[in-house]
Amino acid sequence: MAKTVLITGASRGIGAATARLFAEKGFNTAICYNRGEEKALALVSELTQKGFNAIAIKLDVCNPENCTKAIEKCVKAFGGINVLVNNAGIAQQKLVTDITDDDWNTMLNTNLSGVFYCCRAASPYFISQKMGSIVNVSSMWGVTGASMEVHYSAAKAGVIGLTKALAKELGPSNIRVNCIAPGVIQTEMNKALSAETISALCEDTPLCRTGKPEEIARAIYFLAEEADFITGQVLTADGGMTV
What we know:
The chain is of the alpha/beta class. The chain has one domain: NAD(P)-binding Rossmann-like Domain (Rossmann fold, 3-Layer(aba) Sandwich), CATH 3.40.50. The chain is built from 8 helices and 7 strands, in the order βαβαβαβαβααβααβ.
């Protein structure tokens, strides 16, 4: 019987690349999106035309009820869930003195609370079957912190703490929980960065370039499916920038 993966923020970027990879590996793939309905449906069409099993699920990760229902829809469609990839997130650059209460709350709700809500919703299924894997997407800035991204860095650091704690809690049920901390990746989230900024970031990276979504997808798949004795860990995929 084919395994099933649910991926949040899967209509574009890292999420879409991850959905394609899991589908190619034979997984039933639940592609969750919030605002990117057109892209999510196009991705489902692309995958189903290739003979893969995929569905699109609208999901606002800031809404705990939405998260519970998304997991339920996935289980109903495919008969279960084996892997959860918490990828949905937002970014914003502001001086700490300019970050509003709404900025702070939106960032924490999307990038941290959303991860918690999805983990909480999926955990009963994993526990009952004594098997499962969760991969949470943090950021290298969650490891090192970033100037003008206090709220983003705090949320992504929280994802790391959540990962480590949940790995300890769910480990006895044979459930692994790991985290990936990408560096600068070629996604729409980073398109707002100027060419000069990208060039400077590449200069600060030992591999002298930015990363590709497909490279992060392969790292996510490794943690989810091939790292049988790895849990509670943070894999920093940043071209060596934080070394």
